[in-house]
Design a protein that fits this description.
The chain has 294 residues and is mainly β. It contains 4 helices and 21 strands. Strands 9, 12, 14, 15, 16, 18, 20 and 21 form an 8-stranded antiparallel beta sheet that branches. Strands 1-7-6-3-4 form a 5-stranded mixed beta sheet. A 3-stranded mixed beta sheet has the order 8-10-11, with no helix packed on it.
Length: 294
């Protein structure tokens, strides 16, 4: 439990950090512990600010009901809860907490903006950039299947575990950067790309339940989604191999697949994305820097 509290504190500090450029690596130093003390006397703990693309962990008295961006959020047995800040969130967002006694507290979570560089990616097969109608319909259906599993509100608490890297390598693409494929503007990048050789084992960054596994999606190729609880999930794309099945419980560090270049990819890499329900968040803000020894 001590390690989980420490990790919760780190997430809260990262969320409250000042401007963090998209290419920056969160610092492992100077991490105070704003969530280390128990909630008492009806107190609510929540960082004053959160960065675009961050997860924010707070705590409310046991039995409270938390509402954020139109969603009622489940709390852990000890009152902790997690929020996800969208890439394009601005200003401040209200967090409404209905306490067990009936009173309501509303706290404003200030949003810290980030810079989003533009990435130009050439050499992508044209049919994956501007697909014909039949392929576009297939892509839409496949994306709907993936989106559905991200809406699960599983009571698991694996999201409180300190995350580890699923694979080690050069970061070749960063969350949130605006992408331009073959000269045509695309959507902002939804995760982090890690360059590695085809066949490199991919490890679960935290425990969870596999909610989606398909080796042949049109854009993302071999795709696996791992639910870490309370709306937090990881997705692993372009896999050359999938080693876990839907419904399977996997533990942190367990091999769940292998790096590949399936789907829309110009070379072998792992795309690691994270979500809070349907809100995409930045894995780099959750996992921290790679070990210098790797």
């Amino acid at each position: 439990m001590t390690s989980k509290l420490a990790f919760a504190a780190r997430i809260a500090v990262l969320a409250a950090a000042a401007l963090l450029p998209a290419c920056a690596v969160p610092s492992p130093h100077s991490r105070p512990s704003p969530l280390a003390s128990a909630v008492a006397d009806g107190a609510v703990e929540l960082p004053a600010a959160g960065t675009q693309g961050a997860l924010v962990i707070g705590r409310a008295p046991v039995g409270s009901r938390v509402e954020f961006t139109g969603r009622t959020i489940s709390c852990a047995p000890d009152g902790r809860f997690v929020l996800g800040i969208a890439r394009d969130a601005t200003g401040s967002l209200p967090v409404r907490i209905r306490l067990p006694g009936g009173a309501t507290r509303v706290l404003e979570l200030a949003i810290t903006p980030r810079d989003w560089p533009v990435e130009h990616i050439d050499g992508v097969p044209p049919a994956t950039v501007n697909p014909p109608p039949a392929i576009a319909a297939r892509i839409e259906a496949e994306q709907a299947r993936v989106a559905a599993v991200r809406l699960r509100d599983d009571p698991g608490l694996d999201f409180l575990t300190p995350f580890t890297w699923p694979v080690h390598g050069r970061i070749s693409g960063r969350f949130g950067n605006q992408r331009v494929y073959n000269g045509s503007a695309g959507a902002p990048h939804s995760g982090m790309d890690i360059a590695a050789a085809t066949g490199t084992p991919v490890h679960a960054p935290a425990g969870g339940v596999v909610t989606f596994a398909d080796p042949g999606l049109y854009l993302t190729g071999g795709t696996l989604v791992l639910d870490h609880g309370h709306g937090v999930s990881s997705n692993f794309l372009h896999l050359s191999r999938i080693d876990a099945r839907v419904g399977q419980r996997v533990e942190q560090g367990e091999v769940i697949g292998a790096v590949g270049a399936t789907g829309r990819a110009t070379g072998p890499h792992l795309h690691w994305g994270m979500n809070w329900f349907d809100v995409r968040v930045d894995p780099l803000l959750v996992v921290g820097p790679q070990s210098p020894s790797r």
